[in-house]
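Morning. Coffee machine broken again, so started the prediction first thing and wrote up yesterday's gels while waiting. Chain of 416 residues, entered below exactly as on the submission form.
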Amino acid sequence: MIKITFKEYSLTNYSNSDISISNAIVLHLYILICKNMLVNVSDFWFGYNNIFNNLITVFFAIIYLRLLFVSDLIRKIKSGVIAMVLFVILFILITYGIDSNRFTSNVFPYTYVKTQLRTFVAYCLPLFIVVSTLTSIDCLLERLYKFTFLPFVISTISFLFSLQPHENGVYMSYGNAVMFLSVLLLFKYAHTKNLFDLIQFALTCLYILISGSRGPLVSIFIAVFFVMIIFSKRNPLLLMLLVLMTFLIVLFYNQILDFIISVLERMNVRSRTILMYLEGNITSDSDRSLYHEKLLEQLNQNPIIGLGAFGGEAVVGLAHSLYLDILANFGYLFGSLFIGYIIIKDSFLIIKYKGTGISELLLILSIIIFPRGFFDESFWNSKELWMIMGLFIQLGNAPQTRFAYLSKKQTILRET
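Came back before lunch.
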């Protein structure tokens, strides 16, 4: 039986524990993407990257230790989380016993193993654990949408830095950080119909086009597609704007790109993505295939059991493919089973709980990570993937309710 209830639903309706946990997750995500925006477009900020990483790690340790006492986090940790953590520890220890050199050597590419291990422990594992303890995913989504303006300001500042010549930084990392915000802004606009949210979304897309890389644009196009399907009935204006924008871009894309390039040249700015398109190199893999070939060569020598924990990093430094990195860690059989399980269960839950907060958050995270998994990311470094696995475990915490972010209130459908 479905009982429809309309009422004001603000943060006061969430438990103090959910509010504290959601605040910690939002801080975690937004601090990281803001840092990655800045250090990848400016030589000045890049010089402080290691200092930022150390400070962020200490800060995260403080806020998560605080959660242990404020939110009674330990009591909420489920057996599935404990089992996963124990498996990870055991997997790493077995790999260490077989090849300790990859964890201790300071020679390339083993240096990447220690870096990825630190990243996993500090940035991914905490998200996996705390997401699974939430009772209401709506609380987390509401907080993510509510504070998008803060990372948008940083994205604008970092874009201005990117217009200046710089030698350090990674186009893909900058683009991925802005893309995370861009997808959130698009879904937020679909709820609020606020023109300011749409303008912010459009500007972040422009930032990526000019100063980022091609990969993040794939996720944004997919996000637009899903938003058109899901929210078009609620927001006809959104559908009309998106269809019109797509039509104009398809019709005049060469002229638009030529115009943008000419404007940028007058500003002494170069857009790598646009130039690659106009020069016919947009499909170039930037030598990623060389990394993939070398990793596959090693993997084919151990196809059943794989290369162990951090197998991709131990061979090529960075696998530049989430899916290939999973295969490198677990072998063709178990790696394929793991990838299939994640994608099938994720798709099933998004459809089953359509309209709820967990479905929307799973869709957002999936759009962010799975498309770029073909040419970027690694198993141990993917925050979004570990959050998705945490959400799988979270499902049993409470009944799922209809989610509709309206800034000040929500209209929800409760199943009874």
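The two ends are 6 Å apart (CA to CA). Going to sketch it on the whiteboard this afternoon.
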